Amino acid sequence: VSNLKLSVLGNGAAVPTAYCNPSGQLLTFEGNQFLIDCGEGTQMQLLKHKIRYRKLENIFISHLHGDHYYGLIGLISTFHLYGREKPLTIYAPADLEELIKHQLQVSKTTLNYELRFMHLENYNDDPLFESDDFYIKSFPLKHSVPCWGFVFREKPLLRKINREFIENKKIPSEQIVKIKQGSDFVDSDGVTYLNSQITIAPRKSLSYAYCSDTAYDESITKHIKDVTLLYHEATFDNSMETVASEKLHSTASQAAQIAKNSNSLKLLLGHFSARFKDPKVLLDEARKVFPNTFLSIEGRTYLIENK
Ligand SMILES: [Zn+2]
């Protein structure tokens, strides 16, 4: 059983408050860990909520507003102090490389591990990261500085064959692979078994999309079609729609509209403006458009599944 989990570390907007941290999330899939944004305090949130991140090798930074990366140099330093040896790859806007290198240089720090920078400007529809089982892509968001969203997709799973049938018919292993890929099977008596008779469909592949920060932009939907879970920023409520579009952020209803139009299964809201001590108003507004909406809660880990 595949295990895709999302830990929300911060769900607040630009200004941190006593009850809200800036953006940061840890996505975990079968031994792989991906940090998405790293606002100030992200490390502390990981420690506070006892979320292990030893397997972290890849970090994705959406854009260079401070509330999405001010925690990065701290995390890089901590890895160094702990004697990390394995490389760390950072997918981010190109300018971040110079910023981080300068910070390391002025503190005369030579890291004992390799820090690799991959510039988001260089990717279009190419995956940032790919394995046999999944890939991660970026796509442009509509914000006041260049900004990217990220989508994680598990690759389609093979069909499953009835184990008893394999044993009864003594099907050779190379045939089993073909059947899983969709071939029919002909036994020694010349009887044809259609693929649909001897296999069952696998479960639907899991997926997760991250959209923060962005104004309402219909063109986002084509990149995040049918995702299992969508995290979308909801900085403002409906009464502030004009402010939202001026500041290139979204309202809760707009986030819900993106979830609806992309046929997402579930929507998680975040990046709440500090003015909302209780973001329930945002939840209520979003649910009118997309009922399967939830507020992200800091420190909570969500299992991403097809229900
Ligand atoms: Zn921003």
Can you walk me through this structure?
There is one protein chain. This protein is α/β, with parallel strands linked by helices. Helix content is 24%, strand content 26%. It contains 9 helices and 18 strands. A 7-stranded mixed β-sheet has the order 6-5-4-3-2-1-18. Strand 16, helix 9 and strand 17 form a beta-alpha-beta unit. Helix 8 runs parallel beside helix 9. The longest helix is centred in the first third of the chain and has 12 residues. It is globular, with a radius of gyration of 22 Å. The structure holds zinc ion.
What is the secondary structure topology, with strand pairs?
Layout: E1 4-10, E2 24-29, E3 32-38, H1 42-48, E4 56-60, H2 72-81, E5 88-92, H3 95-106, E6 115-119, E7 129-130, E8 134-140, E9 148-154, E10 160-161, H4 163-169, H5 173-180, E11 185-186, E12 192-193, H6 195-198, E13 199-200, E14 207-211, E15 229-233, H7 241-247, H8 252-261, E16 266-270, H9 280-289, E17 293-295, E18 301-303
Parallel strand pairs: 3-4, 4-5, 5-6, 14-15, 15-16, 16-17
Antiparallel strand pairs: 1-2, 1-18, 2-3, 7-8, 8-9, 9-14, 10-13, 11-12
Helix pairs in contact: 8-9
The structure holds zinc ion.
How helix-rich are the residues, as a percent range?
10-25%
CA-to-CA gap between the ends? 15 Å
Radius of gyration: 22 Å
Low-confidence residue ranges: none
Chain-averaged pLDDT: 94
Number of distinct beta strands: 18
**Main β sheet profile:** 7 strands, mixed
- The class by helix and strand makeup works out as alpha/beta
Q: What fraction strand?
A: 25-35%
Give the CA-based shape. globular
Q: Which series of helices and strands comes N to C?
A: EEEHEHEHEEEEEHHEEHEEEHHEHEE
The hetero compounds bound to this protein are: zinc ion
Strand order in space, largest sheet: 6-5-4-3-2-1-18
**Total of helices:** 9
